[in-house]
Design goal:
Active site: 154 (proton acceptor)
Binding site for spermidine: 61, 85, 154-157
Order of helices and strands: EEEEEEHEHEHHEHEHEHEEHHH
Largest sheet: 7 strands, mixed
Shape: globular
InterPro entries: PABS, PABS_CS, SAM-dependent_MTases_sf, Spermi_synthase, Spermidine_synt_N, Spermidine_synt_N_sf
Binding site for S-methyl-5'-thioadenosine: 30, 104, 136-137, 161
Number of helices: 10
Number of strands: 13
CATH architecture of the largest domain: 3-Layer(aba) Sandwich
CATH superfamily of the largest domain: Vaccinia Virus protein VP39
Subunit structure: Homodimer or homotetramer.
Helix content: 25-40%
CATH class of the largest domain: Alpha Beta
Length: 280
Amino acid sequence: MEYFTEMLHDEIGQRLKVDNVLYHDKTEHQDLIIFENGRFGRVMALDGVVQTTEGDEYIYHEMLTHVPILAHGAAKRVLIIGGGDGGMAREALKHQDIEVTMVEIDRGVVDFCAKYLPNHNAGAFENPRFNLVITDGCKFVKETDERWDVIIVDSTDPIGPGEVLFTQEFYGDCKRCLTDGGIIVTQNGVPAVQPQEVTHSFNRLGAHFADVSFYLATVPTYQGGPMAFGWASDNADLRQQAAATIQARLEKAGLTLRYYTPDVHVAAFALPGDVRKLLV
């Protein structure tokens, strides 16, 4: 295999040069490949779609964790749905007073990523504040009696096993699992090529939460432009805090991050006109 070709969309695709295939096989749920690329380092793809790379994963993981955690300001418990590569857990656990539960449907993804993408979890899987549950995320939030301050839905695109993580019923179950004033954030694709994801999630989240919006970040290997992260809470003030407030919380946490800054946090919620038009 000289090139890996991704055709998530019918009209456009992308190719990544494959320097070396480290692993390629089918797990119980998905076709999984991990290969090396000269620009992005190790790359993981599921069912022919790039999920994460060593070269730019920090952007995605920092923005999906630190935005809700620092906006909340007092989070102690974080639930991650998906996130089998461990990057989300790694970032959340940088907050020393936070405990993380990660629910992943596919044990194979967790094991392979721990072996082939060890820098993603960076020891998070062995952290005493980390709890891994192998089960279906939809089933888990429907049945659990536990509550969390922040829920991060680190899903694949709404195809295959990840499709159920974009339903109104799932979001309602997540709402039940949040503490008062809790926040849920979601992965919602690239609006330029997946506009329906934003519109659908806006309406489905809006059926359960008083304040729903999106924020943006550009991750190079997610083709098509800036990607959207869904945001929902019953407290609109959490989304509208000043950079100085976020800065104080970041300094208190003692974090030095690569992409995320308080200014980026605030600016990410400034949606361009074409994205705002999708919120209907």
